[in-house]
Structure formats: structure tokens, C-alpha cells
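Hi support team,

I've been running sequence recovery on a batch of backbones for a student project. Most finish fine, but this one hangs at about 90% for roughly twenty minutes before it completes. I'm not sure whether the input is malformed or the queue is just slow. I've pasted the C-alpha cells below so you can try to reproduce it. Let me know if you need the job ID as well.

Thanks,
M.K.
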């Protein structure tokens, strides 16, 4: 089903993203290593959706203005992170440029038209490093040119497992590379045909990967799916445009926590785990068709992130 190597799994996933999920497939030559952005996708999106703002700001009018635009955008990404920049836009030469259009309501046709102009893209074998030019990540996904997630794949048929993908991130991927710095890319996935793990901040050997599995009968792992790969839910469900947009708009964030003893602040990049997404989405769906006052029970184990689940759920119930 996946061929005899991770390349077969990579091909299967990328083709599904392109042919079923509606992504645009690009190649590594389009990627700008100095700012970790696919500039052709970003520029095409801005020119197509906000030509008046592009003209007013003169952001692409001359090589010097374009260089200034990307330098300031790079600074904004470093300070605010990719999800905040996508959500709230970027101010250049006195004008706020929208860098992403959110999921529209059913009663707003113009917002629907705007949303459909978002560019969801995928690049396989992404050569991301200016120094180690042969280094390549199996594939990465982008929204309007901004890197959102990277993926390292393994295939158990060749006795390579998700643990090998995790070690690849920990040992072979330099977290000082722009693409791999905190907040510049929202999440990093390691997976094989059986398990999926995720990490929001690469720290070399200290990189901490959490499971992104569906669970089996209240335990770890993923259930067997007749005729399918056990991890197919990742690209068939989680990485659809609607699902990814929902995560960007309502889940992903950078949280600043202050240590009361040292008075120092620390930033934590947050991306929901599968069971958190599943719980919130299922309850939102049930409450939309259930009578007011119905009670629900979410069963959690210790350390499963119930505080975030409660917060995400409460926020979206209010909306």
C-alpha cells in the first residue's frame, strides 16, 4: 500500500493533499531559505486579494522595497510567530496586509470567496538549509507561503519507525535553522504507518514529542483500519483545509508564562493533540443539536492537557 520505503508513504500523502484536499504542490526551488517563506505563493496571494494595498504600500514595487518588506516580515514572524501573523496580518508602510482569510459564515458569500483564495501548499523534499544544502525534510505544508508544519516519515516495512523520525529531528535537524526556530513553524510531525507524534519546539536532543494518535479502547496507539494505513487520519482528516483553518483560528497559539520566582517570561508554542481536538469538536457538534442544559463527560488521564481542552471548548461555545 505504501511501497517499500518512506518515499512510497511520502508520495501517497502528498498526492492526497494535492488531488483530494486541494493543495498546490510546489518544489524546493520556490522556497526562500533566508526567510522560510515561499515568496511566489505569498506575493500571488497578496496581488490577487489586495491589489490596492499592494499598490499603496509599494511592497513589491522595487527590489529595495521588496527587501525591506521581507526583512520586516521576518522580524514580525520571529517576534509574534506564524499563527499570530496569519490571524492578525502584518503592517507595512502604514497599511495592514491580510495574510490569511478565515473560515466564512454560511451567510457571507464574499467572505467565502475570500477564503477560497487562500493558498494551501505542499513541498516534498524541502531543502531548507543555506549551510547544509543537502539536508531535506520529507515534506512541509504552507498557507499563503508561510510554513505551518514539517513532516519526517518512516515506514515499518523497512524496519524504520516513528522513533527513527523523532531521532532525525533531535539529532540531524539544527533548531537554529530559520524554519526550525520556535514559532516560525507551528508544529513538527514525526510519523510512520502506525503512529504519529508532534513537537512544537525543537531543542536538539531535548526536543519533546507528544503522541498525536487516536487511541485504541482507551489506550495508546491507533486502531486498525481495514484497507487503510493506520495513520491516514492525519492527511485525510486533520490536514484538510477546513480542519487546518479551524486549528489556526481556534487552537494554535503562543502562550507567555511568567515565572513568579525569577520574574522571567517564557513562551510556549501550543498545538492541540488529537484527543483534545477530538473532544472539543465532538462536543461542539453535539451541543449544536442537543437541548440546552445537556451534560457531558470527558474522560482524561493525568497530563493529557485538560486545562487547554476546557479553555478551547469554553471559548468556542461562547462564540
Amino acid at each position: 500500500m505504501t511501497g517499500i520505503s518512506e518515499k512510497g508513504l511520502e508520495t501517497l500523502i502528498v498526492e492526497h493533499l494535492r488531488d483530494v484536499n486541494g493543495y498546490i504542490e510546489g518544489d524546493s526551488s520556490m522556497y526562500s531559505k533566508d526567510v522560510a517563506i515561499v515568496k511566489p505563493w505569498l506575493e500571488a496571494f497578496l496581488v490577487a486579494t489586495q491589489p490596492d494595498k499592494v499598490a499603496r504600500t509599494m511592497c513589491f514595487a522595487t527590489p529595495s522595497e521588496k527587501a525591506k518588506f521581507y526583512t520586516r516580515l521576518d522580524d514580525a514572524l520571529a517576534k509574534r510567530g506564524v499563527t499570530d501573523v496569519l490571524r492578525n496580518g502584518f503592517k507595512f508602510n502604514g497599511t495592514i496586509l491580510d495574510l490569511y482569510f478565515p473560515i466564512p459564515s454560511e451567510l457571507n458569500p464574499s467572505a467565502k470567496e475570500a477564503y477560497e483564495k487562500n493558498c494551501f501548499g505542499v513541498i516534498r523534499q524541502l531543502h531548507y538549509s543555506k549551510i547544509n544544502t543537502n539536508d531535506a525534510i520529507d515534506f512541509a505544508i504552507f498557507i499563503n507561503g508561510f510554513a505551518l508544519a514539517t513532516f519526517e516519515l518512516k515506514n515499518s516495512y523497512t524496519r524504520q519507525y516513528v522513533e527513527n523520525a523523532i531521532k532525525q529531528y533531535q539529532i540531524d535537524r539544527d533548531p537554529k535553522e530559520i524554519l526550525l526556530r520556535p514559532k516560525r513553524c507551528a508544529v513538527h510531525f514525526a510519523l510512520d504507518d502506525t503512529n504519529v507524534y508532534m513537537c512544537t519546539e525543537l531543542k536538539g536532543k531535548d526536543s519533546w514529542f507528544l503522541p498525536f494518535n487516536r487511541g485504541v479502547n482507551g489506550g495508546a496507539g491507533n486502531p486498525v483500519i481495514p484497507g487503510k494505513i493506520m495513520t491516514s487520519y492525519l492527511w485525510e482528516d486533520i490536514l484538510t483545509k477546513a480542519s487546518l483553518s479551524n486549528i489556526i483560528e481556534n487552537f494554535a497559539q503562543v502562550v507567555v508564562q511568567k515565572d513568579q520566582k525569577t520574574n522571567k517570561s517564557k513562551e510556549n508554542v501550543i498545538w492541540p493533540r488529537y484527543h483534545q481536538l477530538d473532544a472539543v469538536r465532538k462536543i461542539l457538534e453535539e451541543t449544536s443539536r442537543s437541548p440546552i442544559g445537556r451534560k457531558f463527560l470527558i474522560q482524561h488521564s493525568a497530563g493529557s492537557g485538560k486545562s487547554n481542552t476546557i479553555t478551547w471548548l469554553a471559548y468556542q461555545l461562547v462564540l
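--
Follow-up from support: It reproduced on our side and the slowdown came from queue contention, not your input. The chain has a mean pLDDT of 94. No action needed from you.
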